[in-house]
């Protein structure tokens, strides 16, 4: 009985020390001071040239004729966004989520769209000269339409736009 009591006491002591260690090493969660959330925002004709927005949210934002030239939008969320006639020249959209985005007339010249997910997104009349779509997920119809006007080589990655889209 005495051995069982010592064993239980040792177990309680070990668990108590482990809990104390976890509590002393815990780092409090602090709100980010640079949090950007443009969800449902009206950003028509705004100038975001060369701005840094990695991982930021632009869900359902109106961005008609907005200037994102050279902007870092890597891993950004642009779901249901309207980028009609937007300037995305040399923008970094690597890993971004572009589900149900309206890109009609946008300029994606030399843009990086590596690993982007762009399902149910409209690329009608989009300029894609030099854009890199390597490992991008696009609707088959959009790929076939983009291949009709795809040309150039991305100056950063050296990848042909046609090759990155898998054009035949």
Largest sheet, spatial ordering of strands: 1-2
Low-confidence blocks of residues: 29-33
Helix content: 10-25%
Largest sheet: 2 strands, parallel
Strand content: under 5%
Alpha carbon gyration radius:
24 Å
Compute the separation of the termini in Å: 80 Å
The best one-word shape is elongated
Order of helices and strands: HEEHH
> What is the tally of beta strands?
2
Average predicted confidence as pLDDT: 89
- Tally of separate helices: 3
Overall SS class = mainly alpha
Report what the structure shows.
The radius of gyration is 24 Å and the shape is elongated. 22% of the residues lie in helices and 2% in strands. The chain is built from three helices and two strands, in the order αββαα. It has helices at 2-25, 140-147, 161-165, and strands spanning 117-118, 137-138. A two-stranded parallel ribbon has the order 1-2. It is an all-alpha fold.
